[in-house]
Structures are given as structure tokens and as C-alpha cells.
Design a protein that fits this description.
Layout lengths: L1 H6 L16 E3 L4 E3 L12 H7 L33 H10 L1 H4 L25 H4 L5 H7 L1 H4 L27 H7 L9 H5 L23 H6 L10 H12 L3
Antiparallel strand pairs: 1-2
């Protein structure tokens, strides 16, 4: 009898996120949203998104919770199970990715990080994304953590460079902008700005052929600044990506 009664008091847990589990992780008892699910901003006002994608139970996606994702974020159905409708999901991604908990699938957050980052990409905080100490390193090594996927590995080290564009041409400010305002002032290295590898500082510029890349990830690394990243020695860059980085 005690066993039967105890069954009534066992807490039931169930994931209520819905039919699309992207940008979630299983924590042992339920699927919950990852920090990357809500790391971006909505393209339109939050108030408008709240009207278009009203929370089914008044709770919106947030890191660590399992709020039910509004059906309109991914389907035309009104109950689960529901098939994902691509047009509905694309509209949500374009306009209200944060409200729908889809930030990790937007272009700015959906890209590979380098294979050997200088910090743990999974533990990067919002404050680090805005930190003069970390921004440029994150853009190179962990672009998906801060929404830097479209920056080609080059961002301003400080976030307010664009407030006064005249500093880009001010004689006494050149050392500052070359270090802290590379993106705004057009000072990105050619490798990171275009995503195409150019001659590295480790190259003599006289060879006509290069040893084969030892990694299949060189193109992605080059796009994120590996070829000019002085954290790695010229020998290390040559050993991994001599052809891509054009290192003799």
C-alpha cells in the first residue's frame, strides 16, 4: 500500500519546449535552452515579437529553462506533435530569433569555432563578448559564442569606435585605432577581413610551392585569422596549414 501511495507523490518532469529542439540541451531530466538560444537581439521590437509569438504559458525562452516554444516559431500547427514548417521557422529566425529561442541558428551565431581555441568557447559570458581583453580573441577562436560569425575574425576591441569615425583619420589616434578599432576603421588584416589567406609573416615570399596542409580545417581556420594569429608560431602554422596560409 505504501508503494502505491508513493507513486502519487513522484514528481513528473517533461520537456515542454515543443516540436523543435534546436538550441536546447538535455540536463538529465529535461531539455532546456542553451545560453546561445537567447544570446542575440530580435530584429524587430521585443514587444512586436511578443505579439507575433505569444508565450503559450506566459514564460519565454531563457537560458536553462524549458519554456514552451510558441508554435508559430516553427509550425502552422496548434498542438504537438507538429511538423516543422520551413517558412514559419525562417520568419521567426529573421525577425524574432530571441523570442523564439533560435539565436544559435542565426547566421551570426551558427559557425564552427577553431579546433584549438585559447579559451573554452562553451563557457564564454556576455561580459567577455564586450570585454576589450577578450573580444578580439573570441572573434578569432570562438566566433559563434558572441555572434561574430560574420565578422571574418576581425572585430573592434572596444565597442564604441563607431561613435566618432573621425578618429580613424586623426593623426594622433592611429596607434589606438590600429589596435582597438580595426573593424570600424578598416584596419583588419587581409586574411581575416576577406577570409582568403595571404602570405603569412612566416613566409619568405620566394617559394613557388608549399607543403600540403596537414589539417582539413585550414580553410575555416584561415577565415578566423589563424594564418596571421601570432598566438601560434610560424612553425606551428606552417606544420598545419602551409598551403592555405602560403607559408614557405
Amino acid at each position: 500500500m505504501y508503494f502505491l501511495l508513493s507513486l502519487f507523490f513522484v514528481p513528473f518532469t517533461h520537456a515542454v519546449i515543443g516540436g523543435d529542439l534546436n538550441c536546447t540541451t538535455y540536463n538529465g531530466t529535461a531539455f532546456v535552452y542553451t545560453p546561445a538560444a537567447v544570446a542575440c537581439d530580435n530584429a524587430i521590437s521585443d514587444a512586436s515579437c511578443a505579439v507575433l509569438y505569444a508565450a503559450p504559458d506566459t514564460l519565454y525562452p531563457a537560458a536553462g529553462n524549458d519554456a514552451e516554444r510558441a508554435y508559430a516559431c516553427y509550425t502552422t500547427a496548434t498542438a504537438t506533435p507538429a511538423a516543422v514548417v520551413p517558412d514559419m521557422k525562417q520568419a521567426a529566425l529573421t525577425n524574432c530569433a530571441k523570442t523564439c529561442g533560435f539565436c544559435c541558428q542565426t547566421d551570426a551565431y551558427n559557425c564552427p569555432n577553431v579546433q584549438f581555441p585559447r579559451l573554452n568557447c562553451a563557457t564564454i559570458t556576455r561580459s567577455q563578448c564586450d570585454s576589450v581583453t577578450w573580444r578580439t580573441i573570441i572573434a578569432t577562436d570562438c566566433p559563434s559564442a558572441c555572434g561574430f560569425c560574420n565578422q571574418g575574425g576581425c572585430v573592434d576591441a572596444v565597442t564604441n569606435c563607431g561613435n566618432d569615425l573621425s578618429i580613424c583619420q586623426t593623426v594622433g589616434m592611429q596607434d589606438f585605432v590600429n589596435t582597438y578599432c580595426q573593424r570600424t576603421c578598416g584596419r583588419c588584416p587581409s586574411t581575416t577581413a576577406s577570409g582568403t589567406a595571404t602570405t603569412s609573416s612566416g613566409s619568405t615570399g620566394t617559394c613557388t610551392s608549399y607543403i600540403a596542409d596537414s589539417s582539413t580545417s585550414c580553410a575555416a581556420w584561415a577565415a578566423n585569422g589563424f594564418c596571421t594569429n601570432t598566438f601560434y608560431t610560424a612553425a606551428q602554422r606552417r606544420a598545419r596549414c602551409a598551403t592555405t596560409c602560403r607559408i614557405c
